[in-house]
Design a protein that fits this description.
two-stranded antiparallel ribbon; rod-shaped
């Protein structure tokens, strides 16, 4: 078996699924380093047109070993040969992801992770609905409180909560200013009373 590394440069043909507005432009060359990680692990000679070489480089052997443990080399090769070349990279990524999920959870695999994420989404949606209901309840309580305050003050209630807040703030500011004027007058009256006694 030849263990030396060699580099093969091939030109990928233009497939129908890789539609491009410029059909006359040449496809970029694909650099494939052999032997690939798959052929190294399988201990076989890496052929010039190895279907696994473009997707399992020799510097990442864990990628193929993970997929090989779950799907098997023959199934991976058969699956890639049945797909057009433009879809093989995505298929390899999907197989590696599914293999990692299956090794973590041998029973459910990636479906277990999807169910867990869906459960988290449902819990977050329930929390959001609860928070929105509490917000509406607080707004109703605020409107009732403003109506009660204006009823006690003998004024007509506003048409919207924003107007009630503005009006209440202006009324509160006016009352506060009146109280401050009263305190100033009281201080002046106290000074005058002290002058009369002296």
């Amino acid at each position: 078996m030849d263990s030396s590394n060699k580099t093969i440069t091939t030109t990928a043909p233009l497939s129908p699924c890789s539609a491009s507005p410029r059909r006359n432009s040449p496809s970029p060359p694909r650099v494939v380093v052999t032997p690939c990680a798959a052929c190294k692990i399988l201990r076989r000679k890496c052929a010039e047109k190895c279907v696994l070489a473009p997707y399992f480089p020799p510097n990442d052997p864990i990628k193929f070993s993970t997929a090989h443990r779950v799907f098997g080399a023959s199934n991976i090769i058969k699956f890639l040969q049945e797909l057009p070349e433009c879809q093989r990279a995505d298929a390899v990524s999907s197989m590696v992801y599914e293999a990692n999920a299956r090794l973590r959870d041998p029973v459910y695999g990636s479906a277990g992770a999807i169910c867990q994420l869906q459960q988290q989404v449902n819990e977050l949606q329930a929390q959001l609905a609860k928070t929105q209901a509490e917000l509406v309840n607080m707004q109703c309580q605020q409107a009732n409180l403003m109506a009660f305050i204006y009823m006690e003050m003998g004024q007509s209630p506003p048409t919207s909560p924003e107007q009630s807040l503005d009006k209440f703030a202006n009324t509160g500011h006016g009352n506060f200013q009146n109280n401050m004027n009263f305190l100033d007058e009281s201080n002046n009256f106290g000074s005058l009373w002290e002058t009369l006694w002296t």
